[in-house]
Write a structure and sequence with these properties.
The chain is an alpha/beta fold. It contains 12 helices and 12 strands. The protein is globular.
Length: 329
């Protein structure tokens, strides 16, 4: 069984992969994402691939992968997968849900705190030598306590952000999930999305990248937001129309934003967003802790081990493909 690992993972997990009996492992050792052509060439031999969110597994990739049977994403999101195409080709797909909840919620809450308190702009002003000593009117932000946080996407991460917000005295509302039964945390209110957008002081996004959520935050969305509100996005860059976001910032409709994900990644050094001191940005580091990345890698490998052992992978995204698989292992 030939296994392709598209980026070297946590060393504990890599040891488990490389010591697993009966498989031939190829690991992309170079820094940065695996180039597309190299990915296509390696897929030609692979039966299993551990992919990152930077590897697009689409119709073109599958046409280069006659032996491929499983792709295990080292991510909770899977917008880099063309799931219908994978299913048509009989290739199983998995992700890593649940293991990055707290780390991503930390980043979302951190971006919110830094943006609302104006810490990034104050820090940059200080670095430029513009701090002239303490003043009662300099670098004023807002108290988090008493502000209304609106959460769009009340899954594991959205709930973890709500828990943090409630702990500091924020008022919290969320859009009730349509596709699963869930009770809100005590203190969290279900609001219709229109009311939430209109009345929230801070909106935090935690929805997957789908056709339905593409450019969810467009000009109409920003026009409905409460003047002087903040937007936090740790979901996917495609959820926010960047041009509309810039217009909302220019108009003063938005007080600021906290962004960990972008429509274009990596963000070019000359991107207009860098000119807005009220926009706090981090380079897609929602899950970037030692512990979380280890858990993500281990969960992805667990899915592969399930498959290699004749069991349906625990995080199978297209279970219809599993039918009949055990007999052919």
């Amino acid at each position: 069984m030939r296994v392709l690992v598209c980026h070297r993972l946590d060393e504990q997990v890599m040891q488990a992969i490389e010591e697993f009996p009966g498989i031939e492992v190829t690991v992309w050792q170079q820094a940065g994402p695996m180039p597309r052509q190299a990915f296509l060439e390696q897929l030609a031999r692979a039966e299993v691939a551990l992919t990152m969110l930077t590897e697009q597994v689409d119709e073109e990739a599958l046409s280069h992968a006659p032996h491929l049977r499983l792709v295990a994403n080292v991510a909770v999101g899977f917008d880099n997968f063309d799931l219908p195409a994978l299913t048509r080709h009989g290739v199983m797909a998995t992700n890593t849900p649940g293991v990055l909840t707290e780390a991503t919620a930390d980043i979302a809450f951190g971006l919110m705190l830094v943006a609302v308190r104006g810490m990034w702009a104050a820090s940059q002003a200080m670095r430029r030598g513009e701090w002239r000593g303490w003043s009662p009117t300099a670098f004023l932000g807002r108290d988090l306590a008493g502000l209304r946080l609106g959460i769009i996407g009340y899954g594991r991460i959205g709930e973890a952000v709500a828990r943090r917000a409630l702990a500091v005295g924020m008022l919290v509302a969320a859009v009730k999930p349509r596709h699963r039964a869930v009770e809100p945390l005590p203190g969290v209110e279900w609001w219709e999305r229109e009311r939430l957008v209109r009345e929230s002081d801070v909106i935090s996004l935690h929805v997957p990248a789908t056709a339905e959520t593409y450019h969810l935050c467009d000009d109409a969305f920003f026009a409905q937001m409460k003047p002087g509100a903040w937007l936090i996005n740790t979901a996917r860059g495609s959820v926010v129309d960047t041009a509309a976001l810039l217009r909302a910032l220019d108009s003063g409709r938005l007080a600021g934003a906290g962004l960990d994900v972008f429509e274009e990644e990596p963000l070019p050094a000359d991107h207009p967003l860098f000119h807005y001191p009220q926009v706090v940005m981090t380079p897609h580091i929602g899950s970037a802790t030692v512990e979380t990345r280890r858990r993500m890698a281990a969960r992805a490998w667990d899915n592969v081990v399930d498959f290699l052992s004749g069991r349906p992978p625990r995080d199978l995204l297209n279970p219809s493909v599993w039918q009949g698989q055990p007999d052919s292992l």
